Amino acid sequence: MREKVIYVLGACAAILLTRNLYSIFMQLPDEASQGMIYRIIFFHVPAAMTAMLAAGVALVASVLFLITRKFQYDALAVSVTEVGLAFLAANLVTGSIWARIIWGIWWTWDARLTSALVCWLLYAGYLMLRHAIEEPTQRASVAAVFNIFAFADVPIVIFSIKWWRTQHPQPVFWGGGSIEPAMYLTAGLNLVALVMLGVILTLIRLRQEQTQREIDSLRRYAHAVA
Amino acid sequence: MDTRNFTYMFYGFLAAWLILVVYVVMLVARERSIKKELARLKDMVEGQERAR
Amino acid sequence: MTTTATTREVSPGSSGHSAVRPRGVAGSARQALVIAAKDLRAELRTKEAINASLAFAVVILLLFSFAFDEDLLRKMSGGLLWIVFAFAGTLVLNRSFARELPNDCLDALIAAPISAPALFLGKALGNFLLVMAVELVSLPVYGIFYNVRWTTQFWPLMGVLALGTWGLTVIGTVFSALTVNIRLREVMLPLLVYPMMIPGLMAAMKLTTELVAGQPLEGDVLIWLKLLIGFDVIFTALSVALVETVLVG
């Protein structure tokens, strides 16, 4: 069943991405001053939104684990955090490359970039914390608490460009600016495609967590019987 | 089409997808080692069952 | 010493033995103060952490004075001071719950009829006072080494120091509880605390730079003060809410 979901989602995502690539390169008009580089926005922004969505799901999963103590929530939390980390890394790197072109610098310490990097460090710290604890129950509850703390940075990342004057530009798609409708559509569809990709990766990772728990219980059984 | 900065845009797209591909490769590697460990443990348990 | 307390039944269901389970906020506050006093007394008798922390702070101040030239140092006074405070503070915070590990003291504390938030706030208060002490000694040292008159905005500076230190202490204490039982605790604690601290630390640094330079806090800079206060409130609330889960598991 899960296999079928993965394949169907994969097919949909592939179709959307192909359509978007066509749209990005063939149909959309050029931006006034940047040349081709601005087209990276169609991955830069959706990747960020996917990462923030992943952080939100991780928060809910962590809270649910603390309330119900069911390990599938812990498995969901770690899977979705890993996937979110990958998308956030893609966001940071594409942003940095874009910045090198239009601002001439690879990095700057304004509120948006700093908080995004801190977000990445926090969730990477979450994964490191999990590696440092061997006992599964303790690992799950400690990690869940840390995840809740880590989420405190996410609103700062999202609203930083509204609250502070930043090097990073003001909201493009939410700013009510003069963006062509075709661009909105492509960006939205790319977001859907990336979220689908994220779901697929999370499902795969979830299955690995399940298998890992099987291994752990089998190992305990094997040593108990031996 | 305005092709200024084409190279860097290409690098940008490449970087984004490379990161995702690297993550998928990590997942696949972990899947393989997990499957191997599971098979090994199953053999071990079966061996013990037969020995008893 | 009276032994009557030990002959009474100490069970969760027993009704209102006020000597065993103090009621209300005042009771919790008293419990927290008892814990804080215990920690401070233990620390001040051996002075291990506080000596190490002070020595570390002075050494870093010394190193930075070689590393950069005077003008630059003046401009980054806030950043420099808070890096010193954060690093030196971690030495104190690391020991906060780790000190309870030998002889199962941590288990005894968790089992004691004291609420987890009261325990946490007590420890946080103790740590806060210790780290503040290190900071208050570091400041004159800083003034002497770097030839900086930092006393012009003395009380605002003390206020910012207190707010920033409380943020550092709250996060450090709750993460000390989080990491008390894990491998490589001494490495994991700074690794987890520093990213979490960054919004509060940045605010404290900006405010401190202004104040050390003698500028009063007004205008644009006030947003950092709001951020610091918000940061403290949010993380104190989060910590108090989650510390029970962290300790009991």
Topology, please?
The complex is a heterotrimer of chains A (226), B (52) and C (249).
Chain A: H1 2-27, H2 41-68, H3 71-102, H4 111-132, H5 136-150, H6 153-163, H7 181-225
Helix pairs in contact in A: 1-7, 2-3, 2-5, 2-7, 3-4, 3-7, 4-5, 4-6
Chain B: H1 6-51
Chain C: H1 4-7, H2 24-46, H3 48-67, H4 70-75, H5 77-98, H6 105-111, H7 116-146, H8 154-178, H9 185-212, H10 222-248
Helix pairs in contact in C: 2-7, 3-5, 3-7, 5-7, 5-8, 5-9, 7-8, 7-10, 8-9, 8-10, 9-10
Summarize the structure.
The complex is a heterotrimer of chains A (226), B (52) and C (249). Chain A is 79% helix and 0% strand. Chain A is mainly α and 226 residues long.
Describe this structure in words.
The complex is a heterotrimer of chains A (226), B (52) and C (249). With 226 residues, chain A is an all-alpha fold. Helices cover 79% and strands 0% of the residues of chain A. Chain A contains 7 helices and no strands. Chain A is globular. Chain A starts with a helix and ends with a helix. Chain B is rod-shaped and about 75 Å long. Chain B has a domain at 18-52. Chain B has one helix spanning 6-51. By secondary structure, chain C is an all-alpha fold. Chain C has one domain (25-248). Chains in contact: A-B, A-C. The interface between A and B is medium-sized, with 37 and 29 residues.
Largest interface: A-B, 37 and 29 residues
From the N-terminal CA to the C-terminal CA of chain A, the straight-line distance is 36 Å
How many structural domains can be distinguished in the coordinates of chain A? Answer: 1
Mean pLDDT of chain C: 86
Derived from helix and strand composition plus strand pairing, the structural class of chain A reads mainly alpha
Element order, helices and strands of chain C? HHHHHHHHHH
N/C terminus separation of chain C: 35 Å
Report the helical percentage of chain A: over 70%
Main sheet properties of chain C: none
Labels describing this entry:
heterotrimer, A: 226 residues, mainly alpha, Four Helix Bundle (Hemerythrin (Met), subunit A), 7 helices, globular, B: 52 residues, 1 helix
